[in-house]
Design a protein that fits this description.
The protein is an alpha/beta fold. It is built from 12 helices and 19 strands. It has 2 domains: 165 residues, Creatinase/prolidase N-terminal domain (Creatine Amidinohydrolase, Chain A, domain 1); 221 residues, Alpha-Beta Complex (Creatine Amidinohydrolase), CATH 3.90.230.10. Helices cover 35% and strands 22% of the residues. The strands form 4 sheets. Strands 5-4-3-2-1-6-7 form a 7-stranded mixed beta sheet. Strands 8, 9, 10, 11 and 19 form a 5-stranded mixed beta sheet that branches. Strand 15 and strand 16 form a beta hairpin. The protein starts with a helix and ends with a strand. This is Xaa-Pro peptidase family protein. It comes from Rhodoplanes tepidamans (Rhodoplanes cryptolactis).
Amino acid sequence: MLINSARLYERMARDGLAAVVATAPENVTYSSGYWAMSQWIRRGPQAYVLLPAPGRGDPCIVASTGVVELIADQDVWVDEVYRYGHFVVERAAGVALDACDTKIAALLALPEHADAVAALVQALDDRGLAHGRIGVDELGITPSCWDQLAAARPGLTLVRAAEVFRWARAVKTPEEIARLRASAQLAERSIDAALAVAREGATELDLACAFHSRTIAGGGMPVLGCIGFGTRTAMTNVQPSNRALRRGDVIRFDVGGRYMHYRADIARNAALGEPDARVATYHRAIRAGLDRAHAMIRPGVRAADVFDEVMETVRREGLPHYARSHVGHGIGLDGYDAPNLTPSSKDVFEEGMVLCIETPYYELGFAGLQVEDTLVVTRDGADSFMTTGTALRIV
């Protein structure tokens, strides 16, 4: 199970919520294990998970008939499903169904509700939740569906609850930590695969193909693939092109896939041949900043204090004009979970938070350099997921 139920219920009690409704793709998966494909690939499709407070009823999933079969083929721990919308799936006559198809047939036999909100209203009514204060994650529900829900049950007080889920997701369960560790290490192996094809004349697309192929071979799915050469490395979100690798070029990776739904986001740098002195100096400086973050992070430390120390370290160690808006972020089902490592952050590190810490530097006409690691906050400090170092690799 992915969800940190105790933490979520703590926040619900604090906010006086009788139930919360997950609507954003990350929160639906987090709350139930259900990965509703249509939600992840385009805007608008509705999938919900209703999570009543303890003693107020069992959780349930609201799913479109067109993707309901994925519930049967995934590690979903919520048993009750409310199906909506019409979609035709035929069944062969006289053929015995396997276990998965039997589950699909049972899901397709559930009562059909007209739309997502009608199904959610029925689920609320069945649990005696037609009145009271309900938190609804505002990120996945469309404005028209929100209005429809409010009109259908005027006795409800609807409260925006995306922040409730973000707060709950900030401290990971052991299963989440295991998946995030595997995802980060798969990204490392994929960088190794990309660098194995890095030679003069190879293109950014050649390295991207090698990177993503290794991610898929390792059981992941491609998501993030910023891979650039030379001055193109200064493009913050560089997308691989036909630019060929030349002697003396910097190669920058800001990359990561998705493993069992959980994201990776790491960064490494290499060079074809020995880099110039400025590249070497700046790279040492940003590495020193990353090392300072590693040393500081532990429960009770303020994210803003880590930001200040990292900035001071990078400037002192050879990049005096270094400037950043943040030096890291949480990661999980979303690439940017809480906490945020910014100068104005109010976040305080807690045991079980998983963080990406990073010290990028971008200079147009020169190069971009970036080191980024993933770690989990432990009782006594931080445990890095990384098996490779951040040194500038020479290929």
